[in-house]
Write a structure and sequence with these properties.
CATH topology of the largest domain: N-terminal domain of MutM-like DNA repair proteins
Shape: globular
Oligomer: single chain
Strand content: 15-25%
Strand order of the largest sheet: 1-6-7-5
CATH architecture of the largest domain: Alpha-Beta Barrel
Radius of gyration: 21 Å
Number of helices: 7
Largest sheet: 4 strands, antiparallel
DNA sequence: CATGCCCCCTGCACGC
DNA sequence: TGCGTGCAGGGGGCAT
């Protein structure tokens, strides 16, 4: 579920509703997700007000007044659902209105006016942490992260510099969060398709002998930006309503050119290739061997 | 340091 | 219908 566009969509959906909201209590229904919850997690959040919500890479950052930041990573299957106050005023959660199996509702944040935010995560690859704003950039999760793909410091020069001397596949290189932060398996495949670059070529081919960005690097950068921006727009349109159990499904996948399209015809009308699936770094790569070189 | 592999966990689609 | 297999949008940790 969550790559950068999804997390961005979650961020945009939660922002207007939760900015300024005060946490009255936090329910922890188990003591860990992928990692243990930080100690005194509930107590340290209780009574805090949300100052603002942001995103870094695939992390959702909920900053409290006073400077604590609740860091949330959704892993593979994490989902946040915001529910309005129960009309009855009862504190009891109404599971039937929530998506997902209630057994996987691991955390519930309750807010002052009765709204609550539920974290559901069947696979529990997600995690949460609580750190101070000042410590965020030095935090082990953040210190090595590359630039935001949609930010100003991501450009062909940066990619070329990172790719210098790297023999690894272009696919693995782009998936590495130290190269740039937020691309996942789907969008790497899609961006490489748009840029007509083979996922198997060496990352070092993004650099010329003169140590400048190759032309293909100038093509790749906007391909990455475009696919992410389009996915955010599409995600925003169907994920807006967090109460809809199926809101998280079927948003951008109709727009995939290669992901999940093994054996189907390449969508480029000038190409009569067939989408192939290979394994790289232990994960599926989809691409058109004919027009991606 | 760079790279490749395994693993965490549950659900689901598929073939028999 | 039931069961086994393989696979899934992430990323930490370890061996080489």
């Amino acid at each position: 579920m969550p790559e950068l566009p999804e997390v961005e969509t979650v961020k945009r959906a939660l922002e207007p509703a939760l900015t300024g909201a005060k946490i009255t209590s936090v329910q922890l229904r188990r003591k860990n997700l992928r990692f243990p919850f930080p100690k005194n997690f509930q107590r340290r959040l209780q009574g805090r007000r949300i100052a603002h919500i942001s995103r870094r890479a695939k992390y959702l950052l909920i900053t409290m007044t006073g400077g604590k930041v609740l860091v949330i990573h959704l892993g593979m299957s994490g989902r946040l659902t915001l529910s309005p106050p129960n009309k009855t005023g009862s504190k009891t959660k109404t599971h039937e209105t929530l998506p997902g199996d209630p057994r996987h509702d691991h955390v519930v944040f309750h807010f002052e006016q009765g709204a609550f935010l539920t974290y559901n995560d069947p696979r529990r690859f997600g995690f949460m942490d609580l750190v101070h704003t000042d410590e965020l950039s030095a935090h082990r999760l953040f210190h090595a992260l590359g630039p935001e793909p949609l930010g100003n410091s991501f450009n062909a020069r940066h990619l070329a510099r990172m790719a210098t001397g790297r023999k690894t596949d272009l696919k693995a290189f782009l998936l590495d969060q130290r190269t740039l932060a937020g691309l996942g398996n789907i969008y790497v495949c899609e961006a490489l398709y748009r840029a007509r670059l083979s996922p198997r070529r060496s990352a070092s081919t993004l650099v010329t002998k003169r140590n400048t960005p190759a032309k293909r690097t100038d093509v790749l950068v906007p391909a990455i930006r475009d696919v992410l921006n389009e996915a955010i727009v599409a995600g925003g349109s169907s994920l807006k309503d967090f109460k809809k159990p199926d809101g998280a499904l079927g948003y951008f996948q109709h727009a995939f050119d290669v992901y999940g399209r093994e054996g189907r015809k390449c969508r480029r009308d000038t190409c009569n290739g067939t989408v192939a699936r290979i394994t790289q770094a232990g994960r599926s790569t989809f691409y058109c061997p004919r027009c991606q070189r």
